[in-house]
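Support case: flavin mononucleotide complex. Customer-provided input:
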Amino acid sequence: MEALTAIKTRRSCRAFKPEKIHKSVLYKILDAARWAPSAGNLQSWEFVIVEEETAKRQLASAALGQEFVAGAPTVVVVCADTERSAVKYGSRGKFFYSLADACAATQNLLIAAAAMDVATCWVGAFDVNQVRDVLRIPEGIIPIVIVPLGRPAEEAHPSSRTSLGNIVHFETYGKFETIRTAEGDESLPAKGKAPKPGMFDAFLR
Ligand SMILES: Cc1cc2nc3c(=O)[nH]c(=O)nc-3n(C[C@H](O)[C@H](O)[C@H](O)COP(=O)(O)O)c2cc1C
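Agent response - structure generated as follows:
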């Protein structure tokens, strides 16, 4: 699948079929994750694959009871190695770059999965210490994202995005222009128009 198609058709999935993803597919997805950009090419990410039922249930419970996490055949927990970045970049590496690296890898993972018809969801609402305990994650490594993966057992939910006219600034912040895209004219919408709040928006504020 072409990159732009995968980016635009990927949707968060919260119901999975029990059938396992073939290891070769999973490794292809993880391989794409490690080709993400990273600060100083330090690649401050680690991936924990979880397929054991009890551990998946514990992760779902750590994720504030988001049970669909346990329903996925495979769960990947993307972690940041804060010390790897700190060695070169000090506190900016520890508190910012390592997290950015892990998020960049996660996005690659999600897009690669979508390109291979594997459904995913970025789950960021969880108790870090509970996840640490379940997976025995050592100090200095922070779990950043829980990603359940599997074949989808639900229709993709429609999703919306704020129009470009509302978020693209020209030359200086706050200077907007009408943007015409290849997909149709996009006039400049009124500022302050937020997208419809979704189910998990409360977690993300
Ligand atoms: C930082 C972050 C945290 C998120 N946390 C959760 C979560 O805990 N549970 C969940 O179901 N979705 C979570 N999501 C997924 C968003 O709800 C979803 O991406 C958004 O509503 C847009 O929908 P789409 O992914 O289908 O385009 C999270 C996404 C991000 C980027």
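Residues 160-192 form one domain.

Case will auto-close in a few days if no follow-up is received.
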